[in-house]
Design brief:
Blueprint: H1 34-42, H2 50-59, E1 65-68, H3 75-89, E2 100-103, H4 107-120, E3 128-131, H5 138-144, E4 150-153, H6 155-164, E5 175-179, H7 181-184, H8 190-198, E6 205-210, H9 217-222, E7 229-232
Parallel strand pairs: 1-6, 1-7, 2-4, 2-5, 3-4, 5-6
The structure holds adenosine-5'-diphosphate (ADP) and magnesium ion (MG).
């Protein structure tokens, strides 16, 4: 059941010295835009979780990331924040096209991460679209897809648009994200993913997050990761 991946984390009651967020730094201490900080604050996100604290300093510098942390540890903010910040810093605008693609293994998970993206991007001007529709929606998606700056999609649907949507231009892509990367890199998606990757520019930032560490040399080679930061938290569990 893909929804089980959305189990909430322990409540942040341990914001004291010895709790799960001990020693945490706050989102408002990060070198990120006021717009992003405001969105986070309004959604009551104050203290970073371990994976956020470990990865954001690197991802915000433009480095490739291989992040592993168990379900419920807050991986979604760990990649949506650098995506939004990168496009903001590049002054990405409506005419710049697709700046980021976030791939999720299931429609349900894609929908959930889209909701988080809306929080982070609330005070930004980018357009983002969820490309996961059923058969009926594909034509509606096709009309809109070339106006979108951030695509949140499942592998199959993204590939369908790459094949069938004439205006979809990914040549300016800045950041590629694979959420639940271990599932996306799994055999079932191998063909689709290879076809997608072959159509993306190699010069880009790539962020991989999953519940387990992916270190397959072959996988990393086909994703053209550049000197990635391996980050693993909650090793003991
Ligand atoms: P994962 O992708 O690692 O399974 P999610 O990104 O789905 O985890 O986050 C799990 C839950 O934790 C969500 O309900 C989210 O709102 C909450 N969460 C994430 N980051 C924080 C944070 N810094 N402070 C409080 N709650 C958070
Ligand atoms: Mg997740």
């Amino acid at each position: 059941n893909p929804l089980s991946a959305a189990t909430p984390p322990p409540p942040p009651e341990g914001s004291g010295k010895f709790g799960p967020y001990a020693g945490s730094t706050r989102f408002d201490e990060l070198p990120i835009s006021r717009r992003t900080k405001d969105g986070l604050k309004e959604a009551k996100y104050v203290n970073m979780t371990d994976i956020q604290r470990a990865s954001l300093p690197h991802s915000l510098c433009g480095r490739d990331i291989l992040g592993a942390a168990k379900t419920g540890s807050g991986k979604t903010l760990a990649f949506t924040i650098p995506v939004v910040e990168k496009l903001y810093r590049e002054r990405w605008g409506p005419e710049d096209g697709v700046g980021s693609i976030i791939i999720s293994p299931t429609r349900e998970l894609a929908g959930q991460l889209f909701d988080v993206l809306k929080i982070v991007g609330k005070h930004h001007d980018f357009s983002a679209g969820l490309l996961i529709g059923g058969r009926k929606e594909v034509d509606i998606e096709k009309e809109r897809v070339n106006e979108l700056n951030i695509l949140v999609c499942t592998p199959g649907r993204l590939l369908q648009h790459m094949d069938e949507t004439p205006n979809l231009d990914c040549s300016q892509l800045q950041v590629l994200v694979l959420d639940e990367a271990d599932r996306i890199l799994d055999v079932g998606f191998k063909k689709a993913l290879n076809a997608i990757i072959s159509q993306l520019p190699k010069r880009r930032q790539t962020l991989l997050f999953s519940a387990t560490q992916t270190k397959s040399v072959q996988d990393l080679a086909r994703l053209s990761l550049k000197d990635p930061e391996y980050l693993s938290v909650h090793k003991e569990s």
